[in-house]
Amino acid sequence: MSLGVVVVSHVPDIAAGIKTLLTQIAADVSITIAGGTDDDEVGTSINKIQRAFTENTADELLAFYDLGSAKMNLEMAMDLSDKTIHLYNTALIESAYTAAALIQAGTDLAEIEAQLAPLKIK
């Protein structure tokens, strides 16, 4: 089983910037993004999220997002995906970075989730 990361942001440049950051520490991890609407405006797109799921080569995905409506679209896309997807309500940059670094180091999902727990947004 392989683990990958999906980042969803309302702003295309934020999603792209986070991917750039993550690839610096996790070059071997499949990281895909969905930023902005279908027209690259501020918002999210279920189509882009589904594409990020499909294009990610990992078997199991850890998904991170920035704002509430992104969570709603992620949940809808998860229902349409055959992959196992874990959705985290955590600080976006810090948690995506932590997850990618730990996946790169070969850490198992249980330990990754333990490391993400303090980053949970209440």
UniProtKB/TrEMBL annotation:
Organism from which the protein derives: Loigolactobacillus backii
Keywords: Transferase
InterPro entries the record matches: DhaM, DhaM_N, PTS_EIIA_man-typ, PTS_EIIA_man-typ_sf
Annotated GO biological process: glycerol catabolic process; phosphoenolpyruvate-dependent sugar phosphotransferase system
Protein name stated in the entry: phosphoenolpyruvate--glycerone phosphotransferase
Catalytic activity line of the entry: dihydroxyacetone + phosphoenolpyruvate = dihydroxyacetone phosphate + pyruvate
Enzyme Commission numbers on file: 2.7.1.121
Any GO molecular function: phosphoenolpyruvate-glycerone phosphotransferase activity
Highest taxon of source: Bacteria
Physiological role: Component of the dihydroxyacetone kinase complex, which is responsible for the phosphoenolpyruvate (PEP)-dependent phosphorylation of dihydroxyacetone. DhaM serves as the phosphoryl donor. Is phosphorylated by phosphoenolpyruvate in an EI- and HPr-dependent reaction, and a phosphorelay system on histidine residues finally leads to phosphoryl transfer to DhaL and dihydroxyacetone.
Binding partners and assembly: Homodimer. The dihydroxyacetone kinase complex is composed of a homodimer of DhaM, a homodimer of DhaK and the subunit DhaL.
A single GO cellular-component term on record: membrane
